Amino acid sequence: MALSHAKSGDLVSINDVADALASNGSATLVRDDHIEIFRLVLNAGATMQEHSAAGAMTVQCLSGEVDFSCHGRTRTLRPGSLIYLNDAAPHALHSKQESILLVTLILHRK
């Protein structure tokens, strides 16, 4: 069964923090030719080793606290903070608490 993603004009709720944490609700919310938006739910202590995305991206912290490493620095994302990475910039993260991130990728799909 294919996953359902929001279509142009659809309303998407990203603030249902309790339900997302309870269900480990990581999910792709929007997928189109040149954009992908997903909610990433992380348990406390979760780590993602250095990797890169296939395009530019923003990462916004909706809840929790995440150490985000890129460009030789580590910054702590907290609710309301956002970080931008240019095309395919390597990055890593470590979740200090249960956390929810909203990730937006600008892709080069044809």
From TrEMBL:
CDD domains: cupin_HP0902-like. GO terms for biological process: regulation of DNA-templated transcription. InterPro entries: AraC-bd (IPR003313), RmlC-like_jellyroll (IPR014710), RmlC_Cupin_sf (IPR011051). It comes from the Bacteria. Keywords: DNA-binding. One of its GO terms (molecular function) is DNA binding. Residues 49-97 form the AraC-type arabinose-binding/dimerisation domain. The keyword Transmembrane does not apply. SUPFAM superfamilies: RmlC-like cupins. This is AraC-type arabinose-binding/dimerisation domain-containing protein.
